[in-house]
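Team,

Forwarding the record for the chain on the shared tracking sheet. I've put the sequence and predicted structure together so nobody has to dig through attachments.
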Amino acid sequence: MKTVTIASSARGIRRLLARATEDNLILRAPDGREFILAEIDDFNREIELTRKNKALMKLLASRSKPKKRVPLAEVRKQLALTKRSAA
């Protein structure tokens, strides 16, 4: 990866950088190619941005809910197994 220093006279780019401090940006070129502009910062900033992502938080909450469990006796019954044959 290469580092490029932005000149203070590049107002348009500086505005984009200011916006990228608030939220990551997808930059779309006239030819349709897309680029990501994201602030490289410490881990705490990443956590803050992740927590603000409502869709991701909803997904994680739904995945963390306990799943329905089936007792072992019920599994044996459904599979017509006895304790002896399961071992």
